[in-house]
């Protein structure tokens, strides 16, 4: 029965979601997100430089991407929980209450909003640095899933976004006073640990994307398309069993529709990019010089000296430089 006592194998929730250091309050939710951003940056840096980009160009692209991702993530959450923030009596402008639209540290950011905002920011960064947008997206894809996996632990610390009641042995324990628990449920009810489901799914996805990323056929934005399909497929399932309130459209939660849209966009990108064959000539757009795993792009064309192995797209910048010098 759903009301059975918590089993020995059940997952406990943390007793606190923050630490206080003098006047500072540090939320574990924020630390999880920050750790995810750092991990994604390092992995993307490694993948971009292997493709031939300048070292740490990921910072120039990533800064506007992260900034816009936070703005988009919060805006998406607020707009899809409109009544919570703007109904009568809510002080959405007051930063000292939990229902203010500014209080991102209390939770309430949405990955689909982050993807929209982050894509805009990354495009701006790519225009500034000359990096191909598709190249950056492909380099980012595994790191993005890794960041999402790490960020989900923040939901665990906050005891939020859990799933429906369950009697499974890995059910999640939630404090009885949690406002997200539906009225009438016994105090010892366990819930689906949707944060853990997504951590495991995203972690497996990182491995799959890293494996796919070694194939030339997954360049030209196709690896990011695979990310959209992978994440969207998992999110449809986890979102469907979440217990937190959500806007319902035609019988489905808003984020289920967003996940379906992500899958459709991923499939569309794969279809659209089928016109590109072979390897990308350079991680840089025409008109921007930069070492690539395949040679050097010229200032005004994508023509290049091909120095790569047929089945590998990841040749070190040193090898590319040596081969190009020999070709000259």
From TrEMBL:
The lineage of its organism: Bacteria, Bacillati, Actinomycetota, Actinomycetes, Micrococcales. Residues 299-312 have a biased composition (Acidic residues). It is a multi-pass membrane protein. HAMAP family: Lgt (MF_01147). Catalyzes the transfer of the diacylglyceryl group from phosphatidylglycerol to the sulfhydryl group of the N-terminal cysteine of a prolipoprotein, the first step in the formation of mature lipoproteins. Belongs to the Lgt family. Residues 313-328 have a biased composition (Low complexity). Its EC number is 2.5.1.145. Its main location: membrane. A 1,2-diacyl-sn-glycero-3-phospho-(1'-sn-glycerol) binds at residue 152. The chain crosses the membrane at residues 26-44, 56-76, 100-124, 131-151, 195-213, 220-238, 250-272. Residues 279-328 are annotated as: Disordered. This is Phosphatidylglycerol--prolipoprotein diacylglyceryl transferase. Pathway: Protein modification; lipoprotein biosynthesis (diacylglyceryl transfer). InterPro entries: Lgt. It is found in: Cell membrane. Keywords: Cell membrane, Membrane, Transferase, Transmembrane, Transmembrane helix. Pfam families: LGT.
């Amino acid at each position: 029965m759903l009301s059975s006592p918590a089993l020995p194998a059940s997952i406990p929730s943390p007793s606190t979601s923050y630490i206080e250091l003098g006047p500072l309050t540090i939320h574990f939710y924020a630390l999880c997100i920050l750790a995810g951003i750092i991990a994604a940056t390092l992995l993307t840096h490694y993948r971009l430089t292997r493709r031939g980009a300048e070292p740490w160009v990921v910072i120039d692209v990533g800064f506007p991407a992260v900034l816009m991702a936070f703005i988009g993530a919060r805006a998406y959450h607020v707009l899809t929980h409109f009544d919570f923030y703007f109904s009568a009596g809510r002080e959405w402008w007051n930063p000292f209450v939990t229902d203010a639209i500014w209080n991102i540290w209390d939770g309430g950011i949405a990955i689909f909003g982050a993807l929209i905002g982050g894509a805009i920011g990354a495009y701006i960064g790519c225009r500034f640095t000359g990096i191909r947008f598709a190249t950056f997206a492909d380099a980012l894809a595994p790191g993005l899933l890794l960041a999402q996996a790490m960020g989900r632990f923040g939901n665990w610390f906050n005891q939020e976004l859990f799933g429906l009641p369950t009697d499974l042995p890995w059910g999640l324990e939630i404090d009885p006073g949690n406002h997200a628990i539906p009225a009438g449920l016994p105090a010892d009810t366990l819930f689906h640990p949707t944060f853990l489901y997504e951590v495991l799914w995203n972690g497996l996805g990182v491995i799959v994307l890293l494996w796919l990323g070694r194939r030339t056929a997954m360049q030209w934005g196709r690896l990011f398309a695979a990310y959209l399909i992978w994440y969207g497929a998992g999110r449809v399932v986890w979102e469907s069993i979440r217990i937190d309130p959500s806007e319902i459209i035609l019988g489905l939660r808003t984020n289920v529709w967003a996940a379906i849209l992500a899958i459709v966009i991923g499939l569309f990108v794969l279809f659209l990019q089928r016109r590109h064959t072979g390897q990308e000539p350079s991680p840089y757009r025409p008109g921007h010089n930069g070492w690539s795993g395949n040679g050097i792009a010229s200032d005004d064309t994508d023509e290049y000296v091909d120095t790569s192995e047929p089945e590998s797209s990841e040749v070190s910048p040193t090898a590319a430089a040596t081969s190009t010098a020999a070709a000259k």
